[in-house]
């Protein structure tokens, strides 16, 4: 079974890298130190054991030189200087200073070396712990002398040293992880600043900039980022001014053209049938042109208010008025000639939001007109309080919107596939105004499949704080 592990973040990788590096270095130092210390101490202990064994062997030889002295008697009077035990072989017989040791404790290889006349040492293990065995032949005799020096204290010292070194390696690893955590915060902090600035800019705060820095590695990044934001802000301002200026400049000739066409429409009876047809076509296109121009002006106003909050309010700095979405939707349905019984809404007080009425009314009207123009008409409208939001749903009788187009329909100038053949009215700005208005008011707009077929277009807006919250209803 395979487990899908979540990838580690940059800070986690930095901390793990520091901890792993510190652990590796500590392990190498600990092992090296322990091996060197162990070899040095063992070497010193062996040298000390050899000196003690040679001293004891010399003492035993001096006692055996006395006439009539037996090996066993001389060995019984010998007290080893190192606190070990002595085993002696003489004429094929073995003698021991203790009942706990004997010939079995002397390695065969060591016996062979001593029998050949060569002093030698060997390390062995026993029930009481490790020890070093020193063997030598007494000069001028056939006596082989073996002294067994215990290494128990040295073994305990080495264990203590190993524990201390291991604890030091663990502490160094923890210190490395702590330093890695500090270093990761310092390393990631510029990225977090860039991410925060990018988030603020994406939310419409084009005045956000990265703070200046003295770090030579970050000066170029900070400068490039701030220059990019300056260029982006200037481009957006130019585009918004261009749209606003063009829309305003077109308003005057459009008004004159509409007036002229109205004068012609007043003398419709004097025109030929083909002339009346042409007049109807011109009126239709002028009406479409006027709606498109109004939409462009509304989008320019929304863009301007987003870049400069308060710019579109009649009294900047004053709080937005409270508007009941339920009452507003009912009013829009009546004005557009739809039956009011299409609306299912919570009470007006609970569906109150803080917004200017005209932009919100335009957004609601665009949703209703979108259903009428492109989706066979409005099937149902629902306004409800869901937690801290007021949600408006508009269901239509159309074929629905494909999943891949549910976000694209809110883009500016986005139209259905039939629009390329000129069979759909409008310029594709109505839903864009809906999305921009919802975003400007702190809410959101989206499209989903309708509960009874067709499409459901929805907007959610923050409820006014004074409005009482109702239990969330199912959508």
Q: What would you say the CATH architecture of the largest domain is?
A: 2-Layer Sandwich
Low-confidence stretches: 309-318, 419-423, 466-475
The global form is: rod-shaped
Average pLDDT score = 80
Number of domains: 3
Radius of gyration: 48 Å
Q: What is the strand tally?
A: 12
Order of helices and strands: HHEEHEEEHHHEHEEHEEHEE
Q: How does the major sheet shape up?
A: 5 strands, antiparallel
Can you tell me the CATH topology of the largest domain? Beta-Lactamase
CATH class of the largest domain: Alpha Beta
Specify the oligomeric state: single chain
Strand content: 15-25%
Catalytic activity: ATP + protein L-histidine = ADP + protein N-phospho-L-histidine
Domain Histidine kinase: 245-465
Enzyme class: transferase
GO molecular function, one term: phosphorelay sensor kinase activity
What this model shows, in words?
With 475 residues, this protein is α+β, with helices and mostly antiparallel strands. The protein has three domains: 10-159, Beta-Lactamase; 219-307, Signal transduction histidine kinase, dimerisation/phosphotransfer (DHp) domain (Helix Hairpins), CATH 1.10.287; 322-462, Histidine kinase-like ATPase, C-terminal domain (Heat Shock Protein 90), CATH 3.30.565.10. The protein has nine helices and twelve strands. The protein has a five-stranded antiparallel sheet. Strands 7-9-10-12-11 form a five-stranded mixed sheet. Strands 6-8 form a two-stranded antiparallel sheet. The longest helix has 55 residues, at 10-64. The model is unreliable at 309-318, 419-423 and 466-475 (pLDDT under 50). One of its GO terms (cellular component) is plasma membrane.
């Amino acid at each position: 079974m395979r487990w899908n592990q979540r990838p580690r973040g940059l800070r986690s990788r930095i901390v793990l890298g520091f901890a792993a590096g510190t652990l590796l270095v500590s392990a190498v130092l600990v092992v090296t130190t322990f091996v060197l210390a162990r070899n040095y101490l063992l070497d010193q202990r062996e040298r000390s054991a050899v000196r003690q064994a040679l001293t004891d062997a010399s003492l035993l030889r001096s006692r055996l030189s006395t006439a009539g002295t037996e090996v066993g008697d001389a060995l019984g009077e010998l007290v080893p200087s190192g606190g070990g035990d002595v085993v002696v072989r003489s004429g094929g017989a073995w003698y021991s200073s203790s009942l706990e040791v004997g010939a079995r404790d002397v390695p065969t290889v060591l016996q062979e070396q001593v029998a050949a006349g060569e002093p030698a040492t060997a390390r062995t293990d026993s029930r009481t712990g490790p020890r070093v065995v020193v063997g030598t032949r007494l000069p001028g005799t056939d006596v082989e002398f073996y002294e067994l020096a215990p290494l128990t204290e040295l073994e305990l010292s080495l264990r203590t040293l190993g524990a201390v070194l291991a604890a030091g390696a663990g502490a160094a690893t923890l210190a490395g992880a702590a330093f890695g955590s500090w270093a990761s915060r310092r390393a990631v902090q510029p990225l977090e600043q860039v991410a925060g600035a990018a988030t603020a800019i994406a939310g419409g705060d084009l005045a956000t900039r990265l703070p200046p820095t003295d770090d030579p590695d970050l000066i170029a990044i900070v400068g490039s980022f701030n220059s990019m934001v300056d260029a982006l802000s200037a481009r957006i301002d130019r585009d918004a001014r261009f749209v606003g200026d063009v829309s305003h400049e077109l308003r005057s000739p459009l008004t004159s053209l509409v007036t002229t066409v109205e004068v012609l429409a007043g003398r419709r009876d004097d025109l030929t049938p083909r002339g009346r047809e042409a007049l109807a076509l011109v009126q239709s296109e002028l009406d479409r042109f006027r709606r498109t121009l109004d939409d462009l002006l509304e989008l320019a106003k929304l863009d301007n208010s987003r870049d400069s909050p308060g710019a579109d309010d009649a009294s900047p700095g004053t709080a937005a008025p409270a508007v009941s979405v339920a009452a507003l939707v009912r009013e829009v349905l009546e004005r557009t000639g739809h039956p009011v019984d299409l609306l299912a809404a919570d009470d007006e007080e609970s569906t109150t939001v803080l917004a200017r009425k005209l932009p919100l009314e335009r957004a609601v009207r665009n949703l209703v007109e979108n259903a009428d123009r492109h989706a066979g008409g409005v099937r149902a409208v629902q306004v409800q309080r869901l937690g801290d939001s007021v949600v408006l749903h508009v269901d239509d009788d159309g074929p629905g919107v494909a999943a891949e187009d549910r976000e694209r329909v809110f883009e500016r100038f986005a139209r259905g596939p039939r629009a390329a053949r000129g069979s759909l009215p409008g310029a594709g700005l109505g839903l864009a105004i809906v999305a921009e208005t919802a975003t400007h008011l702190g809410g959101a707009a989206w499209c989903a499949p309708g509960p009874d077929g067709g499409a459901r277009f929805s907007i959610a807006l923050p409820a006014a704080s004074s409005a009482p919250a109702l239990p969330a209803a199912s959508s």
